[in-house]
Design brief:
mainly alpha; Branched-chain amino acid ABC transporter permease; membrane; ABC_transp_permease; 72% helix; transmembrane
């Protein structure tokens, strides 16, 4: 049984469940929630790449998410460009802005970096909120078009949008997996573990930190563009710092610095939030203490906790000598 439940089979089972879910449950509300979960998970993966694997906590991620969303919205609504061209340009624009910001932000370290990016995120929010001639300010940007058909395939129904988001989500997970297990990913981890040691080994920490920062903004911008194309209405609130802290919560709960953590944390909290809606604002009385306990007893989140105990179990299993192998002396 344990051989059947290896990592590869579990992943295939989860993908199969995601593919057949619209046929099992045709409730459009649940499709909407799962589609949003895929989008938010992509944003969390970007944050996790920088904070979890490189060791630099960015608090401007909500701002980059908003840049991607407004990038697509402005290019389609005011620029008159097609959806797919705008969808490709939005994360690239976010990445370009992230490159400029990263050149200055990465001159700082640790909590100074976090404070600097927090200020950057709030400035992005103010620009979106106050630049009414461009962003429409508090009125929001309406009329964002739905994804254009690709040949005979249309994306006007909730099921079609669900599958489109699922495909992009799976591609992002695959790309993140390849990055983390590449030489570049190992370089990020080396910087996280000890930047001084990485420098002594000849690693260009400045270049690699900037690369990690730019990649994280790309995935945030991609998630923002997907959000704008799905919701089709955006306002300044998507750039507010609460979005960043929501993404941070998803990452910490699921498991910072793990590949499965963003999925587990995002889906778990979003599903719990929907089931606890009857509590309204009192939901935080439940989430707050649970999050505190999780940080105290399992700093690497749910996935980190499982991996740690699984590793300990395998170690004990290897150290245990079966009785039938013990030779009589």
């Amino acid at each position: 049984m344990m051989k059947l439940l290896n990592k590869r089979n579990i992943i295939l089972i989860l993908i199969l469940l995601a593919v057949v879910f619209p046929f099992i449950n045709q409730n459009q509300y649940y499709l909407h929630i799962l589609t949003l979960a895929f989008i938010w998970t992509i944003a969390v993966y970007g944050l996790n790449l920088l904070a979890g694997f490189t060791g630099y906590l960015s608090l401007a991620h909500g701002g980059f998410f908003a840049i991607g969303a407004y990038g697509l919205g402005l290019l389609t609504v005011k620029g008159g460009l097609g959806f797919w061209l705008s969808f490709l340009l939005a994360p690239l624009i976010t990445m370009a802005i992230g490159l400029v910001i990263g050149l200055f932000a990465l001159r700082t370290k640790e909590h100074f970096f976090a404070i600097y990016t927090l200020c950057v995120g709030y400035i992005i929010y103010l620009v979106i909120d106050k630049w009414e001639s461009l962003t429409e300010g508090v009125r929001g940007l309406i009329g964002i078009p739905a994804p254009e058909p690709i040949g005979p395939i249309t994306f006007t129904t909730p099921i079609a949008q669900y599958y489109l988001t699922l495909v992009i989500f799976l591609l992002v997970v695959l790309i993140i997996y390849r990055i983390v297990h590449s030489l570049t990913g190992r370089t990020f981890i080396a910087i996280r573990n000890s930047e001084e040691l990485a420098l002594s080994l000849g690693i260009s920490t400045k270049k690699n930190k900037l690369l990690s920062f730019v990649l994280s903004t790309f995935f945030a911008g991609l998630a923002g563009a997907m959000y704008a194309g799905f919701i089709r209405f955006i306002g300044p609130e998507i750039a507010y710092t609460t979005i960043t802290f929501d993404l941070l919560t998803y990452m910490i709960v699921g498991g910072i610095g793990t590949l499965a953590g963003p999925i587990v944390g995002t889906f778990l909290i979003l599903i719990l939030s929907q089931n606890l809606q009857f509590l309204q604002d009192y939901r935080m009385l439940i989430f707050g203490p649970l999050l505190t306990l999780l940080i105290i007893f399992s700093p690497r989140g749910i996935v980190g906790f499982i991996l740690l105990h699984y590793s300990n179990w395998k170690t004990k299993k290897r150290m245990t000598i079966p009785k039938d192998q013990v030779k009589e002396g």
